[in-house]
Automatic annotation (TrEMBL):
Keywords: Membrane, Transmembrane, Transmembrane helix. The keyword Membrane applies. The chain crosses the membrane at residues 12-32, 44-63, 70-96. This is ABC transporter permease.
Length: 101
């Protein structure tokens, strides 16, 4: 029973995280305002960031099911959320400043 509860909780949490990454990808690739001519839509930076986030999520998901421990589930998801925040708030603006003066 404990193993089934872990699998259910891990799947639900990871589907929510995957939905957030998917929504972020949709927000990166769809521009509803007037497009800025200096930044192409979708840009290679957006694609790279989205692929990075998907691969980080995939590794986190794989690692959670490899170990099957509640602490790993908790810390892997918290680490993923922190990494996504750092990538979006630090890495993404830095790459835009370096590539699009």
């Amino acid at each position: 029973m404990k193993n089934k509860l872990y699998h259910l909780f891990a799947h639900v949490v990871n589907i929510i995280l995957l939905g957030a990454v998917g929504f972020l990808g949709l927000a990166l690739f769809v521009n509803i305002s007037e497009p800025d001519p200096s930044v192409p839509s979708p840009s290679p930076i957006d694609m790279g960031i989205w692929i990075l986030l998907l691969s980080m999520w995939g590794f986190s998901y794989w690692y959670q099911f490899k170990n099957r421990q509640w602490t790993v589930l908790l810390f892997a998801n918290l680490l993923f959320i922190v990494a996504v925040t750092i990538v979006i708030l630090v890495l993404m603006p830095l790459l835009y400043d370096l590539c699009y003066f």
